[in-house]
Design brief:
321 residues, mainly alpha, two-stranded antiparallel sheet
Length: 321
């Protein structure tokens, strides 16, 4: 009698199917979870996105369109093509305003960056007191309009405390905001006073990211503070410094309120910066098409400067490898 031997059926295919099914269920669950996270993220992003579209994107697109039209608010925009840009190129006041703005930017950025860097290094190397950081930031809490009015009173030629001190020391009074030579440097230094603390704290945050081990190793090798500043601090601070320079240059080209409350573009257009000239063309002479063309030109200039700064300073790269 022969007994047929039989082997138990293999469950490998079934096990493989069960494993594949489990993997598919896991993937579907992960997909549903990702979709849920995406919806939640969209809810949080929506207010900022709507604000960006309503207050930045749409006005920019509208301004670009108006730059090709003749528009004065009283009649519908009339398409004129490149006439506004041709007028801008042939407008001597536009070029003079651009030069005045560049002068302001050079003074403001140069003095502000060096002063902020010195303050940041002193805060890092000598003290990290929160009280001192608060004092440094105090001027930034004041609006540009208030700061401009206060300094206008203080620097008044006849009654300002600044000129009273100068006269008390035996020197001639200086018309800081009433003289063509002094006006732009004075406005630049007023804005330096207001913004230098904020810029210093940004640089201070960058300095705090530099490891102390690097400085300790340099001290062991006998490096002085001055040598460590140029060989360690500046190279490692470069990405933060580059971003700060980009931000301050963009802000400096958009100076308006300090000029508006102190000199109103005078004397003799000596402080007629580009933003103030655009404002005068739009709301003073109701030439909104021409003002939009100058605004677009300023946008192009700032975009080119930003890209150039980013590439030259290698802002996206760090030496903290």
């Amino acid at each position: 009698m022969t007994i047929a031997s039989s082997s138990p059926p293999s469950r490998l295919p079934l096990g493989g199917a069960e494993g594949a099914g489990t993997e598919q269920r896991t993937r579907r669950a992960a997909t549903r979870e990702n979709r849920g996270d995406g919806r939640l993220a969209a809810v949080f992003i929506a207010p900022a996105l709507l604000g960006f579209a309503a207050f930045l994107l749409w006005p920019t697109l509208r301004g670009v369109y108006l730059s090709f039209t003749r528009f004065n608010l009283l009649t519908p925009p009339e398409w004129v093509g490149l006439d506004n840009y041709v007028r801008m190129v042939n407008d001597p006041i536009f070029w003079d305003s651009l030069l005045v703005t560049v002068e302001y930017v050079v003074i403001n950025i140069g003095v502000q960056t060096m002063s902020a860097l010195a303050i940041a290094v002193l805060l890092q190397r000598l003290t990290q007191s929160a009280v001192l950081r608060g004092i440094v930031l105090t001027p930034y809490l004041m609006s540009n309009v208030v700061a401009g009015i206060v300094w206008l009173w203080m620097l008044d030629t006849q009654l300002g405390i600044g000129n009273e001190i100068i006269a008390g020391l035996g020197f001639d009074r200086i018309p800081f905001l009433a003289d063509e030579t002094w006006a732009i440097p004075t406005i630049a230094l007023i804005n330096v006073w207001r913004h230098v603390g904020y810029t210093a704290l940004l640089l201070f945050a960058g300095l705090m990211a530099i490891p102390n081990d690097v400085y300790e190793a340099a001290k062991v090798d006998g490096a002085s503070e001055w040598r460590m500043f140029w060989r360690i601090t500046m190279p490692l601070l470069r990405p933060v410094l580059a971003v700060v320079l980009i931000m301050t240059v963009i802000g400096s080209f958009q100076v308006f309120d300090t000029v508006a409350v102190t000199t109103a573009g005078g004397p003799a257009n000596a402080t007629n910066v580009l933003q103030y000239y655009i404002y005068g063309a739009a709301f003073g002479r109701f030439q909104f098409g021409y003002a939009s063309a100058m605004s677009v030109a300023l946008l192009v200039v700032l975009s080119a400067i930003t890209v150039l700064q980013y590439r030259i300073t290698r802002a996206g790269q760090s030496d903290l490898g």
